[in-house]
């Protein structure tokens, strides 16, 4: 009777070990399959990096597959566009060879370009770049707040100004023709109103404001366009 109980106990132990082995093997195969699928999904595109006139980093897709721009964002040294769907010009579009974007980054650190899976459950660094040491990039955003017609004035705002040494210069364009340039103090006021434009604009004309540092006219910080009412 004792031998029978011992045999039953041994058989039970063997069966439990067998079940554990089967479950472990199944789980391992599943995890390997998931890992393989994720690895196969990661795009193998190539990118080139250069420094623009403002000191920012221009990132250009130079080869490999087209990538959904909503799945790309920056990390590491990047000081902007650090979440998916945040890269202007790349979000809501397909990024292909020749497409580029400019991003501000901390000098002397590594800039990473990150791809996120469509379901958001995984991500991977698909490109890296060592940002040169030196002065941090100058950046700013400009937004037209109001066009007064027939009052012939344009009001705009300057936001997110970084690393600007001295005042800024804002130029108002009418249908692509430069009209009036004004100096914007640093830090800028909450709103800037440009009146007495040289070129009289009409309803429907495209009005544009372009922003540059006063001491670096090769650097276009930002621009915004609005149609006159």
Report, as a whole number of angstroms, the end-to-end distance. 100 Å
Mean pLDDT: 86
Radius of gyration over C-alpha positions, nearest whole angstrom: 28 Å
Largest sheet features: 4 strands, antiparallel
Structural class: alpha+beta
Shape: elongated
Number of helices: 1
Fraction of residues in helix:
10-25%
Lateral arrangement of strands in the main beta sheet: 12-11-14-15
Proportion of beta-strand residues: 35-45%
Sequence stretches where pLDDT stays below 50 over 5 or more residues: 23-38
Give, in order, the helices and strands.
HEEEEEEEEEEEEEEE
DSSP summary, beta strand count: 15
Structure write-up:
With 229 residues, the protein is of the alpha+beta class. The protein contains one helix and 15 strands, in the order αβββββββββββββββ. The protein has a four-stranded antiparallel beta sheet, with no helix packed on it. The protein has a three-stranded antiparallel beta sheet with strand order 1-2-6, with no helix packed on it. A hairpin with an 8-residue loop joins β14 (206-213) and β15 (222-227). The radius of gyration is 28 Å and the shape is elongated. Mean pLDDT is 86; it is low at 23-38.
